[in-house]
Design brief:
- The chain has 286 residues and is α+β, with helices and mostly antiparallel strands.
- It contains three helices and twelve strands, in the order βαββββαβαββββββ.
- The strands form four sheets. The chain has a six-stranded antiparallel β-sheet, with no helix packed on it.
- The longest helix is centred in the middle third of the chain and has 18 residues.
- The protein starts with a strand and ends with a strand.
Length: 286
Amino acid sequence: MLFHFDIPIYKPGWNWRSGRDVPTPEMYNPSKLDTDQWMEAAKAMGARCTVLVAKHCSGFLQWQSDLYPYGVKQSPWRIGNEQGVAAYPCWATVPDRQDYNGPGDPDGRYWLPGKCDVPIRNHEWFWTPNAEQKLYSVEQLMDMYYRSVGRNCNLLLNANPNPEGLVPEADFQRHVEFGKEIRRRFDKPLAQTEGRGDMVELKLAASTLIDHVIVMEDIGHGERIREYQIEGMVGVDTWQTLCTGQSVGHKRIQQLDPREIGKVRLRVLKSAAEPLIRSLAVYRVG
């Protein structure tokens, strides 16, 4: 069975032989792609072999490539970017589909937390000589951390051992610096609490400047929060919205404009069951 699935389907009437008025890669975004369903069609007719046309006359490439400018690499389809970041919201449960590779589904049947992989040397999954200039900076790595760990995912940072079987010294030191910066920012919260229910309040010892809030659910009982709001008390009795969000799961890190706050509260606006908050913490990172 042969499968032609290509960008011309997103621009009906386009003459894909002409080379003119070419569809943009952004048009390619199959939101319900299910190749298992394709295989069911093949099995139903008794096919023993299936073939996907990976690059047809339209020129659109159906696999990720850094060497070719027109294909799925340039489309918005699929968080599979190998850049160490996840979309938001990101849920740890997924639908009943073997090929699922998206940002999760809050009503999904299976527990399958997301992972964000990236090599510490930009686009270098294996060691190459004289490529230390491709090492991501600590700030770049922290940005990945916020957009992976801080979005309910695991960050998988690839190391590149050299022919001697060692992590190169420059790479090793970057790992050290990255770890130090994570600990500098988040090892010691200004205040921290836990709780359950639709509202959890955290009182600071005194009105304090904060710039980060971290929320963690007790995921031993699943992800329950669907929508939330974090508020801060400014002055004597004035609550202001600091940030909002949807998924929390294992960890949600939110960076704020620095504000002097006396209390912080988490208000859960929607949930699947009683919210169980493992940690509500505030930080002054600077």
